[in-house]
Amino acid sequence: MEPLTAGAIAIGTVIATKALEKTGEKVGELLWDKTGQFLVILKKHSPQTVAAIEKAHSQPLDYGKAVLEVESAAKANPEVAQAAQELVTAAETHPPANLAEILSQIKEAVEKSQPSYPSTFIQNIEKAINAAQTQTIDQRGSTFNI
Fold it and tell me: Which of 75, 110, 138, 139 has the least C-beta neighbours within 10 A?
């Protein structure tokens, strides 16, 4: 999966996981571990992005900016790209119950703030939203042309 979509899904998964944690709901151990690993690795390369993501429950997050920052970090650092992809894979297998809602918010914010995003990015996010609504995100067999 290309870094832009992987970054958006990774951010959505982190926010969804943190929101569930606040309400006392449980998420799978694998998803929890991959979320933590992603944040630790991203923090090495983009600490301001992690700080903003971690405050998203109390302060509005500029999703467009955050997605671009994660994409940039992933392109510049294979370690970030791998951690994001591992988190996306974990979310595909065990999506948080609120992931579709968070991804919808990301999509709306990105469309408003970044009208120049490739239409295929929006299509990929819509596919992830639809899949999360059915509680499964499996894009391994899909082809994305970004």
Answer: 138
Residue type, position 58, single letter: S
Question: pLDDT tens string for the chain (146 positions)?
Answer: 677 788 888 888 898 888 887 777 777 888 889 999 999 999 999 999 999 998 988 888 888 888 889 989 999 999 999 999 999 988 888 888 888 888 888 888 877 776 666 667 777 778 887 777 776 444 544 443 33
Q: How far apart are CA 131 and CA 63, in angstroms?
A: 20
Q: Where are the alpha helices (DSSP H) in the chain?
A: 3-23, 29-45, 47-54, 63-76, 78-93, 99-113, 119-133
Which residues have a Cβ under 8 Å from the Cβ of 28 and sit 6 or more positions away? 90, 94
Contact 92, 137 (CB under 8 A): yes
Rounded-to-integer distance, Cα 69 and Cα 63, Å: 10
CB neighbour list of residue 46: distance below 8 Å, 6 or more residues apart:
69, 70, 72, 73, 80
**Contact predicate 60/22, CB 8 Å:** no
